[in-house]
C-alpha cells in the first residue's frame, strides 16, 4: 500500500482508515521512473504525523484569535472565522498563551470542539492539503529501511531500542518497498512460538522477573506538587476523564508515545485508552461531536465506542481497557496483546489501581541486546529531520 505524494490529507486518512493500517509509505509522484528507493519515496505518513498536523491547526486558530488577526491566508480564513469566539487569556508576561503550544485546559477544550472539527474537515484547506505538505512530521528522510540480507537482530533492535514502529523492507532490484514489518507482526510471531522449548523457557517468566513494567509505579504517581514542578512529568503519562481530548494528543506528541490511559477522578483507575491512531475518529466522523462546545477524553471514548458499534465493519477493535498484573507471565501478555491486536497493556494492582504500562516495544526489548559497535555505518545516508521540524 503506497500513498501518492499529491494525495490530499483527507484521502490519506481515508486510505489508512479503510485498510486498518497506521501508516503507509508516500511515493514521490515527481520522481523519475528509474529513481532509486531513496528518491522514489519522501517518507511514511502515519497517524502520529496527522495528529501533529491537527494540533498545529488548532494552535494556529488560537494564535489568530488571540492576536486579533482577521485572517492568515485565504485557505484557513473559514476556520479562523469559526473559532473567533474562543477566549484566550494572557499569561504573566502579558503575551497570549495561544502564541505557542496551547497551554490552558480551557483553551484546549474551547478550540477542539465540534464546530472546529466540522469546519476544518469541510474546508477546502483540509481537502486540498497534500500529504507532501506535512512531510515535516516525518521522522526520517525518507525512512529507515531493511534489506532482505539484514539480520533478525537488526530488525529487533530497530523496533525496540531505536523506537521504530514499522520497518519497510526494500527490494533493491525493483527499487521499491517489498514489505513492511511492524512491532505487532513480531509479537504475533512470538505468539506462534508457543510450545517451542526456547519460548516456554523464557515465556513462563513473570513480568517482575523481567523488570516489567519499566516505569513501575511511576505512571500514576500522585503527590502534592511543588512550585516549579512540571505537572506532566510528576503525575505520569495520563489524562483525566474531564480533560480535553486535545491534551491526550498533545501529551503523545510531546513525549513521542503511542497512547495514554484515561483515568477516573481519583487519578488511579483506568477507564479508557486513547492511542495516536485514534486521531482518525476526530477527522473521519466529525458529525459525532456536533453540538459539543468541547470534547473531553471521556466524551471522545464514548463517541468512538458508539461509532464502532454502529459501524460494525469499521474495526474489530477491543473497546475496553486491557490490564494485567505483575505476577502474570510474559507469555500471558504476548497472547493477550496478539489476540486483541493492541499496542499496550496496563499493569494494575489487586484493587485495579494503575501501576504501569507494557508496550510491544518493551516486550521486544527483553529479547535482544545490542553488541558494541553493532550498527557501524548502518545509519549513514538516512538523516533524521531536525528536532524543530514543523508541519
TrEMBL record:
PROSITE patterns: CBS. It comes from Vanilla planifolia (Vanilla). It comes from the Eukaryota. Keywords: CBS domain, Repeat. InterPro entries: AMPK_gamma/SDS23_families, CBS_dom, CBS_dom_sf. Residues 231-290, 314-375 form the CBS domain. Pfam families: CBS. This is CBS domain-containing protein. CDD domains: CBS_pair_SF.
Amino acid at each position: 500500500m503506497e500513498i501518492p505524494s499529491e494525495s490530499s490529507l483527507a484521502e490519506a486518512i481515508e486510505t489508512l482508515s479503510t485498510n486498518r493500517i497506521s501508516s503507509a509509505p508516500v511515493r514521490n509522484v515527481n520522481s523519475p521512473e528509474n529513481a532509486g528507493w531513496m528518491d522514489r519515496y519522501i517518507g511514511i505518513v502515519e497517524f502520529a504525523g496527522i495528529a501533529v498536523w491537527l494540533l498545529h491547526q488548532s494552535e494556529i486558530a488560537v494564535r489568530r484569535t488571540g492576536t486579533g488577526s482577521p485572517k492568515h491566508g485565504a485557505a484557513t480564513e473559514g476556520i479562523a472565522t469559526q473559532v473567533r469566539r474562543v477566549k484566550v487569556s494572557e499569561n504573566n508576561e502579558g503575551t497570549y498563551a495561544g502564541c505557542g503550544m496551547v497551554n490552558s485546559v480551557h483553551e484546549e477544550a474551547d478550540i477542539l470542539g465540534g464546530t472546529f472539527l466540522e469546519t476544518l474537515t469541510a474546508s477546502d484547506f483540509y481537502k486540498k492539503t497534500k500529504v507532501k505538505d506535512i512531510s515535516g512530521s516525518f521522522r526520517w528522510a525518507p525512512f529507515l529501511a531493511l534489506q532482505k540480507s539484514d539480520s533478525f537482530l537488526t530488525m529487533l533492535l530497530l523496533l525496540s531500542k531505536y523506537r521504530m514502529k514499522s520497518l519497510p523492507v526494500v527490494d533493491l532490484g525493483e527499487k521499491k518497498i517489498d514489505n513492511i514489518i511492524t512491532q505487532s507482526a513480531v509479537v504475533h510471531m512470538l505468539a506462534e512460538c508457543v510450545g517451542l522449548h526456547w519460548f516456554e523457557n523464557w515465556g513462563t517468566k513473570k513480568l517482575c522477573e523481567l523488570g516489567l513494567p519499566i516505569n513501575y509505579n511511576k505512571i500514576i504517581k500522585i503527590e502534592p506538587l511543588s512550585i516549579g514542578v512540571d505537572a506532566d512529568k510528576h503525575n505520569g503519562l495520563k489524562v483525566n476523564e474531564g480533560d480535553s481530548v486535545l491534551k491526550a494528543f498533545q501529551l503523545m506528541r510531546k513525549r513521542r508515545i503511542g497512547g495514554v490511559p484515561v483515568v477516573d477522578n481519583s487519578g488511579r483507575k483506568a477507564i479508557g485508552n486513547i492511542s495516536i491512531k485514534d486521531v482518525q475518529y476526530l477527522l473521519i466522523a466529525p458529525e459525532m461531536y456536533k453540538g459539543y462546545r468541547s470534547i473531553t477524553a471521556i466524551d471522545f471514548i464514548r463517541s468512538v465506542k458508539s461509532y464502532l458499534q454502529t459501524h460494525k465493519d469499521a474495526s474489530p477493535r477491543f473497546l475496553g481497557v486491557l490490564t494485567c498484573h505483575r505476577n502474570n507471565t510474559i507469555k500471558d501478555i504476548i497472547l493477550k496483546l496478539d489476540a486483541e491486536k493492541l499496542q499496550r497493556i496496563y499493569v494494575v494492582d489487586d484493587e485495579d489501581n494503575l501501576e504501569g504500562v507494557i508496550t510491544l516495544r518493551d516486550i521486544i526489548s527483553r529479547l535482544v541486546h545490542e553488541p558494541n559497535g553493532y550498527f557501524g555505518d548502518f545509519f549513514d545516508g538516512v538523516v533524521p529531520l531536525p528536532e524543530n521540524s514543523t508541519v
